[in-house]
Write a structure and sequence with these properties.
SH3 type barrels, about 160 residues, 5-stranded antiparallel sheet
Amino acid sequence: MRGEIALRPHNRYGAELDGLTELTAIKDGVARLYQIESLRPVADGYLVQLEGIHDRDAAAALTLSDVRVRRADLPPLEPGEYYVEDVVGCAVTRAEDGRSPGRPLGVVQETFWNGAHDVATVVGDDGAERLIPLVPAFVVSVDAPGRKMVVDWDDDSDDNG
């Protein structure tokens, strides 16, 4: 009724957003910067009051917008954490195992959200494409500054017959 907007982060267990003062909403390819008047946590995300959005119709116009915040406004990463956007361009190798230690799988070309978690599209030198879930069960390590990612991944495309 007051124009609050439900903000549902992809990773609801990720960084707290309590200190945010602005955000960018992207709808139909148009980006607009908004000042945050208030932000409060709720069960599956946050309710946000944006400057200039004070009724239901104005809030509804932002439904299904992508929301971006400046990286500098987020809390620092803990050891072992990374931002999903940072894996794009990383060289991906399979974790060492008895069969093929350190085998290169390709480079992350893009990421996407599948409704449950983020997924990396990894393309090999041979053009083979692998979709690798960006979850702890498969991601062993990410060295974003070094542009490297190690995964525990095995699929049929790795077999020689």
